[in-house]
């Protein structure tokens, strides 16, 4: 019985990959015995057409090779012969595919080689991966996941494979499972000193948001800002989370202003719209001091054009309102004597807008002490004043006292801001 070398294609789907046949040899029995573990035993019915098919495949002569491969498949009885038949069929179908054919013909020989006890494990791993590619291209995410996981278990080493598995999980509807796998992958990369791409974070945010997994969406947004805390990213994430129409969280204008305050503190307000809508909403809340400060900063930064009719009208209205309000010192004195904390809280809001942090901190604490106010709102604003005054520890304590959604979520963004402030 003649022998065939136990080697499969060097590169799957590379075109022209071949299974090498041993030269006819007059080997001594002892030599055959020595090489038994590395050789395949073939019957004469298989060996002859297999050798001819191999020659035709090397020349990419599909017409000649096709009936020969079929002859080998029909004659194959043992594991060795079935292995060679599948390897030759795979070579043939790969050549056809390279000539413009589809990949459907690769499926059967790949499955046979994966199942064959004669296929080396490293080759099985590659074949399982290629089956995963075929399944993915056929829009079969479940099948692709199964083969990719098999390839991974067999030792297939491709840095893109974990990400492919994540995408398949998410595309098949298992967003939670895919998100958990992606988080593990990101953690491993970070632990190894590698910085994951921004696209990974954006992908996870988008997929979880589409699935209405709000908690996981926010978790990925925070991971993203921890890794890439740029001013643009902070602005984009907060707008996406709570400012824009159909945001992740539903906030009223009063709550949205506290997000704009974060962006202002981090110098992350982006454009004319940000400055003008922020100023409008503070004016609507009876805070002309803050409205004036925001508009003045926007003009100085070149974000608000000098001829902006909206900004100029709002600035004039703010100045008039400030003039009508008169001195805040008198109001502050009344707030200290009031029976509840409402006047102290509103006066603290006014000082918050003018940047008089120490006064606003004192009045917010007075408001909390006197009561009669929304403690969660007041603690949020107290934290903002403390953060701007440079007391990060005190600010975190105030933010951590905030309870209930969405106030606690807003406070959590401020804590994230203190840990990962916006960078240029």
From TrEMBL:
The keyword Signal applies. It comes from the Bacteria. Keywords: Signal. Residues 1-22 form the signal peptide. This is Tetratricopeptide repeat protein. The lineage of its organism: Bacteria, Pseudomonadati, Pseudomonadota, Alphaproteobacteria, Sphingomonadales.
